[in-house]
Amino acid sequence: QVQLVESGGGLVQAGASLRLSCAASGRTLSTYTVAWFRQPPGKEREFVAAIRRVSGITTYADSVKGRFTIARDNAKNTVYLQMNSLNPEDTAVYYCAANSFTVLVVKSIDAYDYWGQGTQVTVSS
Q1: CA-to-CA distance for 24 and 13, rounded, in angstroms?
Q2: What does the pLDDT look like over 4-49, one tens digit per residue?
Q3: Spatial distance between the Cα atoms of 109 and 125, rounded to a whole number of angstroms
Q4: Of 4, 59, 73, 119, whose Cβ has the fewest other Cβ atoms within 10 Å?
Q5: How many other β-carbons are positioned within 10 Å of the β-carbon of residue 94?
Q6: Considering only CA atoms, which of 59, 67, 78, 73 is closest in space to residue 123?
Q7: Does residue 103 carry a pLDDT above 80?
Q8: DSSP assignment of the chain, as one string?
Q9: Residue 54's pLDDT is what?
Q10: How many other CB atoms are there within 10 angstroms of residue 80's CB atom?
């Protein structure tokens, strides 16, 4: 029943930063496990980062560890993905996803019931 809308994508140069937002309506997002996935052109959708409900434990793909940070702003009912030191390999459509129940495998696409429409991130070399 929650609706998710991503924003904050754009075209940037390598080394730049972007902050993506996943804004929710209809439900309180703090009670959901929320994840970011991305789909590079011509490739499968892949896991980026997740933040678990209740515990707040975060998980990152190896490719973004140390560069990306997932965080909540409960007052705004929003989850952010801060992306630093972007490189062309980060170019993709970025999606946020959520589930109101405990997610056993946060990296699995099938674990999430709700998805946003995606926001494009393009990084030039």
Answers
A1: 29
A2: 999 999 999 999 999 999 999 988 888 999 999 999 999 999 999 9
A3: 29
A4: 73
A5: 23
A6: 67
A7: no
A8: --EEEEE--EEEETT--EEEEEEEESS-GGGSEEEEEEE-TTS--EEEEEE-TTT--EEE-TTTTTTEEEEEEGGGTEEEEEE-S--GGG-EEEEEEEESS--S-TT-GGG-SEE---EEEEEE-
A9: 85
A10: 20
